[in-house]
Amino acid sequence: MKRSKEPKSLPRREFLRSAGLATGAVALVVSAGSKAQAATGSAPEGAKSGYQETDHVRKYYELAR
Length: 65
Description:
- By secondary structure, the chain is mostly helical.
- It contains 2 helices and no strands.
- It is elongated and about 80 Å long.
- The termini are far apart.
- About 0% of the residues are buried.
């Protein structure tokens, strides 16, 4: 049996390079999709957003003192 002069690691390197590029592409698509959803998604009319001091928050403040 003769050995080929071409190294066996070349296909593996190509696979790893392709996998890395695919991972980067997926991350880019996911981040672009979440930004688009965040831009279009908004709170319903009349709904308060942000910090709200509710009963359980007040109770936590009392117990934390």
